[in-house]
Fold this protein.
Amino acid sequence: MNMLNKKFLLTIAFIILAVLIPVVIKAPYQLHILILIIIWAIIGTSWNLLGGYAGQVSFGHAAFFGLGAYSAGLLTLHCALSPWWGILLGPLVAALAALPIGMICFRLRGPYFALAMLALGEIFRLVFLNLTDFTNGAKGILIMPAITNKMFYYYTGLGMLALTLLATYLIVNSKIGYYLVSIREDQDAATSLGIPTTLYKNLALLPSAFFTGLAGAFYMNYVAFIDPNIVFNLTNVSVMVILVVMLGGVATTWGPTIGAAIYIFLGEYFRTTLGSANVLIFGILVCLIIMFLPNGIAGELDLLKRLTQRKKASLSGGV
Amino acid sequence: MSFFEAKAITKKFGGLTAVSNLSFTVEQGEIFGVIGPNGSGKTTVFNMISRFFPLTSGEIYFKGKRIDTLPAHDICKIGIGRTFQVVKPLRRMTVIENVMAGAFLRTGSISKARHKAEEIIEFCNLGKYTDREAKGLPIPLRKRLEIARALATEPELLLLDETCAGLNPKESEAAIALIRRIRDTGVTIIIIEHIMKVMMGISDRILAINFGKEIAMGKPQEVANTPEVIKAYLGDAYA
């Protein structure tokens, strides 16, 4: 009970902090960084549900991100509707696309699944690049945003992140969550316990794709320009989300958000201070973190807490 | 109608026939032993029953219903639980979470699953390790966890694959006591075991197989005295 209270208070504190940040930080550039962090936190949290909890490492989440972004963009391009409708359409399109993708790719396990997803992301990029009549191809889609106030984007994004975190939290802390982790730990053992593994993997993929699509649609609205090489990018979306989650802590509630904050902040910091050496230094730093904090930042904190608790328990004559 | 019946089940891996035309029945409430030398097809039989392998030919019936056409995860749902010879703990989950993963088959509620898991953990004498991660457990406890997890799915028929292998005599005595306790709760058990002493003690009936074929079946003492069985275990000179 005590620990639950503490967790609850921490969450409340975090929400208050996030809501109050723009009172202190008003410069557009700094708000821009915060909005990017939010977008990546949403993608990371979504990826974490499938990759972290269910253990199905996807190298192709750019597919869902791009589908979300293009749903919003194409809606404006072809139907002259506000791209904000894309916020509704994008996640649905991404989730709908995830259905057949899951049915095909979940026939594969482990590294083969990861590779199939990687190929998938690339297929989407190439298709959107070459269907020039429909997607504008490499020219991309440029929209005139109706709202330019960054504060608005910050709070909208924050609301979406809160929704994503809440949905993930509810899924993970239900029967589904236990089943997903069981599948990650041993698929055969899970089957022997009567868990229909393919069904539950799909139950992780659908919300994961849905919220990644949401982030994509929001990105279209915020940045106002997309092309296939940006939103379906292998390294800058699919691989980056994995790094974000690993940095923050795989299979933890707050890990992806923490990871996104550190990743984006450090990336920007190095870019402005180190000039062209920034990618190199940044890469080395990521390697170091993965080597010395293999459970990510939130993961290591959890471990520390558990260790101290066990010590306390053994002192009081427990184990 | 028997409680459980395997009718002429056969499994071929390419040119190799691992299990050949094997038939047996198990009655409700008995402990049915399956023995045989290494590579004789015992575990393959379990994998066929639990649908991890599709049958090449033959039929399997449980409580009168044909089950060899069901998908693997439904086998557990209809009441057949299993353990693995090479234990498969859910490593980064605690003991209670492992057992809860089994309990969720019959309930969707976390508190109910936890309650059920606690009961089963007590029943299996794992109470001291409730919150330990499964990867930190020694082998005897992992084997017991394997049984606990299967029990949480409320099986009517439990398939135990070499539960005593790798245990010292004292540990295996504890394991046998646990198996008897499980039977006393009304669960029917099919057990594979290498150690003859264990099998002679707890089985009501024994099926001996070699090269995937039945070589003897009956009361433990009868099976142990069958020349075919002695030959399979000790060589031609002793038969």
In short: The beta strands of chain B are 4-13, 16-26, 31-35, 57-62, 65-66, 80-82, 157-161, 188-192, 205-210, 213-218. Chain B touches chain A at residues 50, 52, 71-77, 81-82, 84, 88-93, 97, 100-102, 104-105, 108-110, 113, 128, 132, 149-150, 152-153 (CB under 8 Å).
